[in-house]
Design goal:
The protein is α+β, with helices and mostly antiparallel strands. The chain contains 9 helices and 4 strands, in the order αααααααββαββα.
């Protein structure tokens, strides 16, 4: 029995031995090459992501928005409805107002200019949230939002820390002929829609 096992093992090693040796060598070499790198990546995982995220947010939006992300990540995420609209409309205004597009002055340009201005003012409100929340310590404001219909899609715009701030932005949009609802607290606004409900 032992002789048969020895014979089978010898035959297997003579057939597959070089392949096994190459695989073992490659695994050993890759372990040596990547071990220190893998170790530093694992050590950095707990420390780097927040710094990297802060840098990305401060570059994409503003340092104040990045501070809000650190103070209250959930509020920052909700505020992207304001910040992303500001980026979009101002980018469209810039695109249509420069280069070849500016020669023909498209009819949509004045609308994008006005929307860029409104959402820039709303984004400036978001930039104050981190300082205001720090100043209020344990007080949690009731958040407000409204629904904005753009390109047949409903967007919830907010949050705003006061009803007055929310109403100001909603009224300015409505004065341009944009479709908005009134301002409502977050929990109530989830039940409202600009689309007629089918019965």
């Amino acid at each position: 029995m032992i002789a048969l096992t020895w014979k089978a093992g010898s035959k297997f090693l003579s057939d597959k031995g070089p392949s096994i040796a190459i695989v073992v060598f490659l695994l050993f070499a890759s372990g040596i090459l990547f071990w220190p790198h893998g170790l530093t990546v694992n050590m950095a995982v707990g420390k780097e992501p927040e710094a990297i995220r802060y840098e990305k947010v401060s570059t994409s939006y503003s340092e104040d928005a990045a501070d809000l992300m650190r103070v209250n990540g959930e509020l920052f995420t909700k505020s992207l409805s304001i910040l992303d609209n500001q980026k979009y409309y101002c980018l469209m205004q810039h695109h249509l107002g420069t280069g070849e597009a500016a020669v023909s002055r498209p009819s949509a340009l004045p609308r994008y200019e006005r929307l860029c201005g409104i959402f820039t003012d709303a984004a400036a409100m978001v930039d104050t949230y981190a300082d205001r929340l720090n100043g209020w310590s344990r007080f949690h404001p009731e958040l407000y939002e409204f629904i904005y219909l753009d390109k047949a899609a409903e967007q919830r715009i907010g949050p705003f820390l006061t009803l007055e701030e929310c109403a100001e932005i909603a009224q300015r949009l409505a004065s341009l002929g944009e479709r908005t609802t009134g301002c409502l607290p977050y929990d109530e606004s989830q039940r409202v829609s600009l689309y007629p409900q089918r019965v």
